[in-house]
Amino acid sequence: MFRRLRSLLLLALQARQRNVLAWLCALGLAGGGLITVWHSDGYFSCDFAGQWLLGRMVVQGRGVDLYWAPSEEEVLASGYAGDELHTMVEQILRKRPQGVEWTGVEGPLYPPTMGLLMAPFAVLQPRSAHAVLVLLYTQMAFLVGWVLKDISGGRLRTGEATLFVLVFPHFSMGLVLAQNSALTLTILTLGWWLRSRRFAFAGGLVWGLLVFKPVFAVAVLWVPLVLGSGRMFLGMAAGSGLFFLATLPICGFDLIAVTDGMIALNPAHPWTRWLTVGRNASLIYGYDPNWIWFSRDLLGLPRRDMWNWEFIVVHLQSSIGLEPWDEWGMQAVDVSSRATRIGATLMASVVGLTVFLCAANAVWRRLLYRNFGQPHIGPWPAFALLGGLLTCYHFLWYDLLVFALPMGLLLADAGRLGRWGKFMLGFLLISLLGCTINLAHGSGPIEFPVETALLMLAWLWSSWRMLRESPS
Questions:
Q1: Residues facing 259 on adjacent strands
Q2: Are the C-beta atoms of 368 and 451 separated by less than 8 Å?
Q3: N or C: which end of the chain has fewer CB within 10 A?
Q4: What local confidence, expressed as pLDDT, does residue 440 receive?
Q5: In 42-111, which ranges are continuous DSSP H helix?
Q6: Which of 146, 144, 158 is nearest to 188 (CA)?
Q7: Range in 232-236, 245-249, 304-308 the model is least confident about
Q8: CA 450, CA 219: separation in Å to the nearest integer?
Q9: CA–CA separation, 254 and 268 (whole Å)
Q10: Cβ 52 vs Cβ 118: under 8 Å
Q11: What is the largest CA-CA distance in the chain?
């Protein structure tokens, strides 16, 4: 009996059978997820409504009114009504930092470039647009799976890579809100694929599309440089500039104003108003419990008032039902400047160490092995990408999906690992999957940022592997 079970297990672990099983699981998850999300009210959330609003403004030819709340409220009324409209107006257009007077300049946190991307979908009403985007984002998971197969040279099969994306934190929950983390991951992966095909400049052009979410564009802008790909860096700069210029026919060409011989940004231009929206959001992020506990970035770590034994005990007791769950008590925050300094120092340290160690690795390769190289999988690119993405200024739990690319690059290189290396990689991946289950069935954002800690561990482990291994 034992031998028969062992034979069946070995057969199931063979590459072909494993890929078929992964395909079946991926199709089942995708189909079940679509049915569940299509029967939800995910369209009724500020996360989705803000994106739809930007696209609708472009569709109605009101791009010059972007981030002007009175006009945006009129456009929101074309898709939402009654209590739904009131709620969306309050959450998107009436938010403002404490002590800051409301001037009418407000709106979604995305720049005008998001309006261009959302315009084809904003032709539809919110519920229909939400359904179409959910389908598109699900298909992107399969596209990313196919591309990861090519990047890995077949080490990861399409079914396996797709399943990896579908179960990665927090694809399913982001799908409910029709969030664009799948789009961000697709842009990153396609750009990386073009780089692996020796089309570095074209890959940079694709990465330039990340300007629809500028915090991620800035986070990875320097990654091509530390990997020795100047052409990809130039392509990204060119792509970002072209995408920005594409918004001017819609928003207006009067971004620069000359007043009394002084050149300055036109305060009435949508891009200038968006900068005001961003500054307001940055102030809110400094003290708002919901935003801080929803986030998974390094800057938010010290802002969580949880670094004491009493909090840990209460949290664990509440998690297993021994104590009632006090949502506001469990979301306490530290608003001191000390917490901000610690977070900024942490981010600067990750950037500095990533740049320094990648440069040291490049010199090591050149001097000892006469091989600079630009690897596409393995610890070096994974370390650089993890370092870049971890230093993103502010991202929420559903944006963790973008880390599927660097973790996939580590997984594709698993064949070169020894017993302890495979154990470490398995621990990281299984633990990340556990975070998905915990968030989906727990109490939402009121959880320790375990994902951030695991990704930091993956970053450190990648640096150790990068420096101790010789180039292949």
A1: 262
A2: no
A3: N
A4: 42
A5: 46-59, 69-76, 82-88
A6: 144
A7: 304-308
A8: 21
A9: 9
A10: yes
A11: 90
Contact in structure between 88 and 80 (CB atoms under 8 Å): yes
Rg (CA), the chain: 23
- Across the range 36-54, mean pLDDT stands at 90
- Rounded CA separation 266/264 (Å): 6
Of the candidates 117, 158, 144, 173, the one whose C-alpha atom is nearest the C-alpha of residue 294 is: 173
Count the Cβ atoms, other than its own, within 10 Å of residue 355: 16
Per the prediction, the chain carries an average pLDDT of 87
Cβ proximity of 79 and 125 under 8 Å: yes
Alpha carbons within 13 angstroms on the beta-carbon side of residue 436 total 21
Tens of pLDDT, residue by residue over 140-193, are 999 999 999 999 988 899 999 999 999 998 898 889 888 999 999 999 999 999
3-state secondary structure at position 265:
strand
Burial (CB < 10 A; 0-12, 13-18, 19+), residue 73, is middle
pLDDT digits (tens, 9 = 90+) for 348-377: 999 999 999 988 888 777 776 666 667 888
What CA–CA distances, in Å, run from 88 to 41, 52, 76, 114, 307?
A: 14, 12, 8, 18, 35
Q: Which amino acid is at 197?
A: R
Q: In terms of C-beta density within 10 A (0-12 exposed, 13-18 middle, 19 or more buried), how is residue 160 classed? A: buried
Residue with tokens 């801080």: 292
pLDDT tens-digit profile of 419-466? 899 999 999 999 988 777 654 444 444 567 889 999 999 999 999 998
**pLDDT of amino acid 444:** 46
C-alpha of 181 from chain center = 5
The answer to whether the beta carbons of residues 228 and 236 sit under 8 Å apart is no
What amino acid occupies position 289? P
472, pLDDT greater than 70: no
Alpha-helical segments (H) within 222-297 = 223-226, 230-251, 270-285, 289-294
